[in-house]
Design a protein that fits this description.
This protein has 280 residues and is α/β, with parallel strands linked by helices. The chain has helices spanning 36-47, 100-103, 112-115, 130-140, 159-167, 215-218, 255-278; strands spanning 9-13, 52-56, 59-65, 68-73, 78-81, 84-86, 90-92, 108-109, 124-128, 147-150, 171-173, 177-183, 186-192, 197-199, 202-206, 209-211, 242-244. Strands 8-15-9-10-11 form a five-stranded parallel sheet. The protein has a three-stranded antiparallel sheet with strand order 3-4-5, with no helix packed on it. A three-stranded antiparallel sheet has the order 12-13-14, with no helix packed on it. The radius of gyration is 22 Å and the shape is elongated. The protein binds flavin-adenine dinucleotide.
């Protein structure tokens, strides 16, 4: 089967969004509290005005061949393009705790900058271990005085980290977590395996993430120690013609930042196409 050259711009989206469980997006001025699905709906509606083809499709493979990208879509179709922008996001590692699905997105979160304000002055838990768990617990002290670090097993803290937590009156609970309980989607308590419980209104996870797809890796991108794609100032990568924006790249993970990175990449892509056209 031959390759098809798409129109000026094609978006392939397989419809698996990181913030699917969120009920309201914060930190995006002018859109504060909007449901993520509504933000996407508005985005697509506005794209209709421009020459953009939008397709619900998964890209299963990408290769750089003679300065063009050859893409394979699930289902067999193959496409060719000159520039490729990956905004393919990440998958969060959600711990297997009984009840967590019910609370995820309403009482269980990842990011204090997204959901810390709404949970201000509430009893909060951080679920995580080691340096990252301690770091998240300390950062939540900006919003609440009552923060407990639940490590679901050995805390893995260095002496300095444990001392810092003590200084900020953050208790560490190493008991294994049995389940989360609450009313509807509102968390009320964390129950430990021994039977003890800890009343909490929200829990923030520090449990890691990975790239949602392997296209950046297949194309030969360089990655940070945390698994994000190494990008330059305008979202360029080590691969000519390939740009990576949003959570998949190495910067701060916020929707407004993802949008800004997309805009930066778009300018870089356009400038590069102009240079190619003019032979400069
Ligand atoms: C529970 C929760 C709450 C959050 N709350 C906030 C908040 O309040 N404010 C905020 O700013 N941020 C929030 N975030 C973070 C925010 O969701 C991300 O920063 C943002 O979604 C990043 O956008 P993105 O485009 O990089 O990734 P995503 O939104 O995850 O989009 C990735 C897209 O790529 C597609 N894709 C992936 N691989 C392929 C492939 N091979 N082929 C085709 N398509 C593919 C996916 O289907 C998806 O459409 C929250 C995250 C979570 C988990």
């Amino acid at each position: 089967m031959g390759f098809r050259l798409p129109g000026p711009l094609l978006i392939c989206d397989d419809g698996k969004y990181r913030n699917e469980a969120s009920v309201g997006l914060h930190g995006f001025l002018t859109r504060d509290g909007i449901h993520p699905a509504e933000l996407r709906r508005i985005g697509r509606e506005q794209l209709d005005r421009y020459e953009v083809e939008y397709r619900q499709a998964r890209v299963s493979d990408a290769r750089l061949v003679n300065a063009h990208f050859e893409l394979a879509l699930e289902g067999g179709e193959r496409l060719r393009c000159r520039k490729l922008l990956l905004a393919t996001g990440v998958i969060d590692h959600i711990p297997e705790i009984e009840g967590i699905d019910r609370f995820y997105g309403c009482s269980v979160f990842h990011c204090p900058y997204c959901d810390g304000w709404e949970m201000r002055d509430q009893p909060l838990a951080v679920y995580g271990r080691g340096k990252n768990g301690a770091g998240l617990a300390l950062s939540l002290k900006t919003w609440s005085d009552d923060v407990v670090l639940c490590t679901d097993g050995p805390a893995g803290l260095k002496a300095g980290e444990a001392a810092q937590l003590r200084t900020h009156r953050i208790a560490v609970r190493e008991e294994k977590v049995a389940r989360l309980e609450g009313a509807g989607e509102i968390l009320e308590q964390i129950v430990f395996r021994g039977g003890a419980s800890l009343p909490r209104r929200a829990m923030f996870l520090s449990t890691g993430q990975s790239q949602r797809c392997d296209l950046a890796s297949r194309l030969g991108c360089a990655f940070t120690r945390n698994g994000a794609v190494q990008t330059g100032k305008l979202e360029t990568t080590a691969v000519p013609g390939l740009y990576v924006a949003g959570d998949a790249s190495k910067d701060v993970q916020l929707a407004v930042v993802a949008a800004a990175e997309g805009a930066k990449a778009a300018i870089a892509i356009n400038a590069s196409l102009q240079q190619q056209r003019d032979g400069t």
